[in-house]
Amino acid sequence: METRAIIETKELTKIYNGDVAVDHLSFKVDEGEIFGFLGPNGAGKTTTLLMLLGLTEPTSGSVRVLGLDPTRDPIKVKSAIGYLQENMGFYSDLNAVQMLRFVAELNCLSGSEISGRIEDALDKVGLAQESQKKIGAYSRGMRQRLGFAELLIKDSKVAFLDEPTLGLDPDVTNRIMELIEGLCRERKMTILLSSHLLHQVQKICNRVGIMIKGQMVAQGPMDRLAKEKLGIGHEKFSLEEIYMKYFQEA
Amino acid sequence: MHVIKVIIKKELADHFSSYRFVIIFALIAMISLISAYMVGLNIRQQLEGVAKPRFIFLMLFTAPGAMFSLVQFVAFFGPLVGLILGFDTINRERNEGTLSKLLSQPIYRDVVINGKFLAGLTMITIMLVSIVLVITGIGLLVMGIVPGLEEIWRIVFYLIISIIYISFWLGVAILFSILFRSTATSALAALAVWIFFSFFVSIGANIVANAVTSDPSPGNPEAVLQQAKIIRGFKLISPMELYTDATATIIDPLRKSTRSFISVGPLENISMSRFSGPLPLSQSILIVIPYIISLVAITIICFAVSYTVFMRQEIRSL
């Protein structure tokens, strides 16, 4: 079965004040998959995501999201992508309902359906009890869950999740992972997931890409990478081993 | 069109719920109330038993009360309102990481600054209109005089010019909030600009004029004239001067020119008093039109600079 590439970059490069943040990056994410976007801190993952969103202009190379160029067609691209940044970026003096309503209105959802959607989404992520509390008083896990409520409301085709499990306790981490799987399974979202929890990534991702110092050193299904790096016969490989191997080589 | 309304709505809600705004508003309302009351009492005492002159209502705005008139007050402290409303518009969002959230929604970048500017403009309008209404109300109570139609028109024009003037400072503040990452830096930079234009330009104008002209003694009228011209030209780089000149003839129909008077001999004074009737509104407007246009122009320039800088800026989440 031929799958359509939702995200495709070719020789994508970004130079910040002489520093190369992303170096001739070429990769592909197919429709309906969860792509694990791995790499050490400062490898250029966030910069790549910002370029995919059209918030940062590439120095050279090309980006296609759903066949569109994010710098030329920012509105179409941004309405197709739900982006969860590392710190979530919620207004701390709004409560959950006000925040979600603001996002929904910016996405031009019609007024009548907004309230229902917000209620459903908050229910789904388990924040219905706390919906009238200011976001400033939320714990990290709650903010993260609110981020997923936003994704549910926006109901976009693609979701970029930038370290959604950073600094969370194991229980919340598991719930977040379930939410991610649910988005992919039930809503057919294509997900680009950046994370350091390799064990979790191994469980839910179809394919992974490992980015080190601005370059994609490996990408593909995990068992193939295991074969290439760890040798055949390694039945029970772990993503961590593969990752460390690449990391040491770089 | 829909999206900008959403942003304006949110910004207005933010402004109204912020303590910062409540404090400025309380301060300004208090000062204008007190000064209007004092002026009203003064005028009433002075006019006791005298036939009431025309345009007495406008004196509420121009006659100095305890310390200064409302017109002077707005010229001097109005900029502060604009600066306070705008100095952390963009960099606060950047620091809290909400800017990238906002921009990752399907909206154009310019909508963000347009929306924020328009929300600030709405705040300024509400503020000035309510202050003028309060003063009008007090004037009615204290002096018992109803403003004439022309006076109302003059007040409306005065309001429009004042709104443009304060919006200029709002634009300056937004520009600084785009240029500087830290809110403290942008606040201080904006304050520095305000102080420079409010105090130093007029001092500087005198120094420059003194340095350039030769001996401006009363026996040398050409030098006096030249010096006055230089001071004036130099002062015009200050938006405060533009504003004071623009409102001068609007709010005070007895003034025929925006120029400050050079003292002349008693004979000239007598001959000038023959023409001391008030100017009609249309003539007053004609005199101040260039100043209004300059004010609008510098506001647009300031906004255009913010616009281009913001469009080119990198958005990083951290």
Structural class of chain B: mainly alpha
* Main sheet attributes: strand count, strand direction, barrel closure of chain A: 6 strands, mixed
Shape of chain B: globular
Main beta sheet of chain B, described? none
Round the Cα radius of gyration of chain A to an integer and report it. Answer: 18 Å
Biggest interface found: A-B, 29 and 25 residues
Total strand count of chain B, please? 0
What's the domain count of chain B? Answer: 1
The number of domains of chain A is: 1
- What would the average pLDDT of chain A be, to the nearest integer? 87
Cα shape of chain A: globular
Number of helices of chain A: 9
Number of helices of chain B: 13
Uncertain segments of chain A are none
Radius of gyration of CA atoms of chain B, rounded to a whole number? 22 Å
CATH second-level architecture of chain A: 3-Layer(aba) Sandwich
Poorly predicted ranges of chain B (pLDDT <50, ≥5 residues)? none
Please explain how this structure is put together.
The complex is a heterodimer of chains A (250) and B (318). Chain A is of the alpha/beta class. Chain A has one domain: P-loop containing nucleotide triphosphate hydrolases (Rossmann fold), CATH 3.40.50. Chain A contains 9 helices and 9 strands. Chain A has helices at 45-53, 74-80, 96-106, 111-125, 140-154, 170-187, 198-204, 222-230, 239-249; strands at 5-16, 19-30, 34-38, 60-65, 81-84, 158-162, 190-194, 207-212, 215-221. In chain A, strand 1 (5-16) and strand 2 form a beta hairpin. Chain A is globular. With 318 residues, chain B is an all-alpha fold. Chain B has one domain (2-312). In chain B, 76% of the residues lie in helices and 0% in strands. Chain B has 13 helices and no strands. In chain B, helix 1 (2-17) crosses helix 7 (109-143) and helix 4 packs across helix 11 (239-251). Chain B is globular. The mean pLDDT of chain B is 83. Chain A binds chain B through residues 16, 46, 50, 53, 55-56, 74-76, 78-79, 81, 83, 85-93, 102-103, 105-108, 162, and chain B through 2-3, 6-7, 10, 14, 17, 96-108, 314-318.
